[in-house]
Specification:
Number of domains: 1
CATH topology: ABC transporter involved in vitamin B12 uptake, BtuC
Strand content: under 5%
CATH class: Mainly Alpha
Shape: globular
Largest sheet: 2 strands, antiparallel
Number of strands: 2
Radius of gyration: 22 Å
Strand order of the largest sheet: 1-2
Structural class: mainly alpha
Length: about 325
């Protein structure tokens, strides 16, 4: 009995580690979106595309040689992460040159189209990406360590990235660059009238945000050890990320992290609940098989319902934006 109980506790512990790992990856995604929407007011709905670019770029560079797809260079993980961010940044710059002139819903439509183009390329260019079959046997950092230390070490890596990104974004938010971003988001004509190059700042926010999304994609590919075109599923890599940021608090880095962990726990809990209800031996609790198939849509409904609840109770998110105060002695002197 003790062995059985210890085995169950060990399984629960590994599940919590897995939950925190994916929550950390989503936290980096949410922080990337926060740079674009929270800082610069850019309505990007193509998150999944840049997430997929990062996942494929790192996977292709770090996997072992194979005839199934391009790459197989067995490069270090650091090179894979850096290349994922660099490739995403270059593509984001090219996309931004075309799309950032658009505003609001038009920018959203354009980024959706860009993400769909990326997905079709990943799916159809079999010589490079192995098409719908995807890339398997992606190496995972620390996988040679004994359990559970391999899982804990990877969790530590993800959390280290979360902390590093958070510190960098907090410094950026409080810097003159961050204040200009806030000014552009709040009143773009006024920022232009003050002599700020709005287009350059918007491009910087868009590119940097996409690079963070690619970093999250690279971490996800190595964690799951597999990547395919479904990696760019808009439900998991776009819709859910927006919910995380809105619930946590737009323009708040702490809110983005809190929203990511909170909503990933809710999303995972609804999956476990639907599985338990479809397999339970209690007759009055078990749901019919046809209803079990539809539970995925029920989960989306529950997430939407929860989002409405948070918007009613916390319109600006659980941890809303707190703008950095400007020292009194730094105020501009009154003119003569």
């Amino acid at each position: 009995m003790d062995l059985e109980l210890s085995g169950q506790l060990y399984g629960y512990g590994l599940y919590i580690v897995s939950l925190l790992t994916m929550g950390g990856i989503y936290a980096i995604l949410a922080l990337g979106l926060n740079v674009q929407w929270g800082f610069a007011g850019l309505f990007n709905v193509g998150i999944a595309g840049f997430f997929g670019i990062g996942a494929y770029a790192s996977a292709l560079l770090t996997t072992a040689p194979t005839a199934r797809h391009l790459g197989g260079y067995e490069m270090p993980y650091a090179v894979g992460f850096a290349a994922a961010m660099l490739v995403s940044g270059v593509i984001a710059y090219a996309v931004g040159k075309v799309c950032l002139r658009l505003r609001s819903d038009y920018l959203a439509i354009a980024t959706i189209g860009v993400a769909e183009i990326f997905r079709l390329i990943l799916k159809n260019e079999t010589w490079a990406t192995n098409g719908p079959r995807g890339i398997s046997e992606v190496p995972k950092p620390f996988e040679t360590l004994p359990e559970p230390w391999n899982h804990l070490a990877f969790l530590g890596l993800v959390l280290a990235f979360v902390v590093a990104v958070y510190i960098a974004l907090e410094a950026a938010r409080k810097s003159p660059w961050g204040r200009v971003m806030t000014a552009i988001r709040e009143n773009e004509p006024a920022a232009k009238a003050a002599g700020k190059n709005v287009e350059v700042f918007r491009m910087e926010g868009f590119v940097f945000g996409c690079m963070l999304m690619a970093l999250a994609g690279a971490l996800a590919a190595h964690y799951l050890k597999f990547v395919d075109p479904n990696t760019t599923d808009p439900l998991l890599a776009t819709f859910l990320v927006w919910v995380m940021l809105i619930v946590g608090g737009s323009a708040s880095n702490k809110g983005a992290i809190l929203g990511a962990f909170l909503m990933w726990v809710v999303w995972s809990a609804t999956e476990i609940l639907s599985t338990q209800l479809s397999t339970t031996n209690i007759e009055w609790l078990r749901i019919p098989d046809d209803m079990a198939i539809r539970m995925a849509y029920v989960r989306i409904f529950l997430i939407g319902l929860l989002l409405q609840f948070f918007l009613q109770r916390h319109p600006q998110g659980i941890l809303p934006e707190r703008r950095p105060s400007v020292p009194r002695n730094s105020a501009a002197p009154v003119g003569d």
